[in-house]
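Protein 1 of 2
SEQ + STRUCT:
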Amino acid sequence: MANPWAGEVALVIDGERRVAKLTLGALAELEDQLGAGSLADLVARFESDALKAVDVLALVAAGLRGGGWQGSVRDLMTAEIEGGVLEAARVAALLLARAFRVPG
């Protein structure tokens, strides 16, 4: 079970339930992969109207790796994500919100 208080989000990929979490390492990897200059730039990218499908996949993949998954963005491109595009986008949004939530 995913623990939202720990920043975790659940996602079913190819019939297997996975837990995703944006750890500091996952965020650093995502910054590098997307060419973001800072965490603020990274968040702004996901808040803009110019969001791309590959950005959502990169965010979900980084979160899954933060949760222990060993796959890549390329693996997600051919995977069956339960709930499709909308679920992937929802999970991406939750990951960001939970990673930057102030406790309390």
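Protein 2 of 2
SEQ + STRUCT:
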Amino acid sequence: MFIDFTYYFWRALWHVKAMVLLQFALIAAGAGAVTHVEKMPFGDALYFALVTGLTIGYGDIVVKTPLGRWIALMIGLVGILFTGLMAAVMVHAVQESMKKKRKRD
């Protein structure tokens, strides 16, 4: 069943790859904006954007300006959409693998 799940997961992910890439591009663009607004190195801003976008939020790097905070909110919103998309892909993979299991039984 795990092999079926993996197959359907990657198959579904392939169908929404444009959305996934767009979301990662938006997070990277947010990192660029944070670099510019907050005057921090791009590596730190990218780390901040990924941690914020993945809704982890360690708090070791923070933005201080109002515009930086607004950008962080937008990155967080994209991250929530990314999490929802991944959950939908996983649910689809579970449903398809369960259908296949029922057909075998």
